[in-house]
């Protein structure tokens, strides 16, 4: 067997594999001999079928199968030994005139090669790392929300600004008929809110759905329409008031503090706000980290320049999926996924350069911590090491879970690397301003 490579350019190559008769003949002969021993052919005793008949019936199929196996093994071994970093999979060149009656065979494969490039984490323009804080306004709102949530429900006769209104949204044409509870702050305009002030049980308020809510997605929640139907919905709906309630705010006393955080954990309003601030900013940190991860990714893709073997990859995509696609579809698919492919190559370079690895001990510790957090949410604060290890072992016996957790850990390791090495500037921002700036 002989394997040679012709480099077309820095990103494309053709590998030629020459297979001689001596490479496969012994194996084919052995398989056919085994077939002869077990073949059941009418007119012959088992094990006494003439070899010529066995070869005639099975020879070509066995030859093709063994040559293909030999070809794949040789190609994979060659790519490994030559340390070729290929994209996609080798593509066999079509051979319409392949003669399986010949003794020797030649096969050619197209390769798409990964580009050579360097990654510089020190971008010219600094990337903003957001430190999201809970300000006094947010803390006061959270305290009020808690007091409402744990307060006493009081039945009212007319709607006021802070009323909780239970009723039914209806529109016969769109088959909308949904019972719900709503507060006036959900509505976008003051005009809509004024329609409710002073209304009584049994009254019907007619509303236009266009720009009805502060968040258009609330159409899905309160009218129970699909996402597609909610988009651009411009109709009238009737809201029949069935019940009007207000909330008598709960007292900020020790009984409420113990109910929220456990006996004696919080003993004053000041400590309550400190606890809310601490818990909130832990959650905000996750959103800030995700924003940073996204921004660094965008910066790396934008500023790390290299070419890809685009023509090869588009050709490979035509047959790489579950269904064969044509050249135009492959081009469209390539354009959609090019940025992702670029970042995967950049990420791989960073992982190799900085020796980032996810060990089994990392996975086990991560799984244990995840389990502890989940159990704490259900009030189980003192789980034993034996219990945590048992649950972690069950999780890590699932390949899909191991893959998911490994990806989470590697993302965290990359994030830690970015925080250490990238050109960052820290900006403190309130959560409300963060949401307005990036999600409005």
UniProtKB/TrEMBL annotation:
Using the UniProt record, give the first listed, main subcellular location.
cytoplasm
Q: Give the UniProt subcellular location, in the record's own words.
A: Cytoplasm
Q: Which reaction does it catalyse?
A: [protein]-peptidylproline (omega=180) = [protein]-peptidylproline (omega=0)
Please give an example of a GO cellular component term from this record: cytoplasm
Gene3D superfamilies from the UniProt entry: Trigger factor ribosome-binding domain (3.30.70.1050), Trigger factor, C-terminal domain (1.10.3120.10)
Q: Which Pfam families match?
A: Trigger_C, Trigger_N
Molecular function in Gene Ontology? peptidyl-prolyl cis-trans isomerase activity; protein folding chaperone; ribosome binding
Designated name of the protein: Trigger factor
Record the organism: Ichthyenterobacterium magnum
């Amino acid at each position: 067997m002989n394997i040679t490579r012709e480099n077309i350019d820095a990103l494309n190559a053709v590998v030629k594999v020459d297979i001689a008769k001596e490479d496969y003949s012994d194996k084919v002969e052995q398989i056919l001999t085994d077939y002869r021993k077990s073949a059941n052919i009418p007119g012959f005793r088992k094990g006494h079928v003439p070899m010529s008949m066995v070869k005639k019936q099975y020879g070509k199929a066995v030859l093709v199968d063994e040559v293909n196996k030999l070809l794949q093994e040789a190609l994979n071994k060659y790519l490994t030994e030559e340390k070729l970093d290929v994209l996609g999979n080798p593509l066999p060149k079509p051979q319409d005139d392949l003669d399986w009656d010949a003794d020797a065979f030649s096969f050619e494969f197209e390769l798409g090669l990964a580009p050579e490039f360097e990654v510089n984490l020190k971008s010219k323009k600094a990337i903003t790392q957001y430190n999201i804080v809970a300000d006094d306004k947010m803390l006061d709102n959270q305290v009020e929300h808690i007091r409402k949530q744990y307060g006493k429900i009081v039945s009212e006769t007319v709607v006021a600004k802070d009323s909780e209104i239970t009723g039914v949204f209806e529109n016969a044409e769109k088959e909308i008929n949904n019972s719900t509870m709503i507060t006036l702050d959900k509505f976008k305009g003051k005009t809509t809110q004024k329609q409710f002030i002073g209304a009584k049980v049994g009254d019907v308020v007619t509303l236009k759905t266009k720009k009805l809510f502060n968040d258009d997605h609330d159409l899905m929640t309160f009218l129970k329409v699909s996402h597609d139907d909610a988009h651009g919905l411009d109709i009238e709906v009737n809201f029949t008031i069935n019940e009007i309630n207000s909330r008598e705010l709960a007292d900020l006393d020790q009984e409420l503090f113990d109910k929220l955080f456990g006996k004696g954990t919080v003993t004053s309003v000041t400590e309550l706000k400190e606890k809310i601030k601490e818990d909130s900013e832990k959650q905000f940190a996750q959103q800030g980290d995700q924003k940073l991860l996204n921004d660094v990714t965008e910066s790396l893709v934008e500023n790390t320049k290299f070419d890809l073997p685009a023509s090869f990859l588009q050709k490979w995509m035509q047959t790489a999926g579950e269904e064969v696609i044509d050249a135009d579809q492959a081009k469209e698919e390539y354009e959609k996924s090019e940025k992702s492919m670029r970042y995967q190559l950049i990420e791989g370079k960073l992982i190799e350069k900085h020796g980032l690895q996810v060990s089994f001990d990392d996975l086990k510790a991560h799984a244990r911590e995840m389990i502890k957090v989940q159990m704490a949410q259900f009030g189980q604060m003192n789980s034993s090491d034996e219990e945590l290890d048992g649950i972690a072992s069950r999780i890590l016996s699932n390949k899909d879970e191991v893959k998911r957790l490994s990806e989470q850990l590697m993302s965290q390791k990359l994030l830690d690397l970015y925080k250490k090495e990238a050109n960052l500037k820290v900006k403190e921002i309130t959560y409300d301003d963060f949401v307005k700036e990036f999600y409005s």
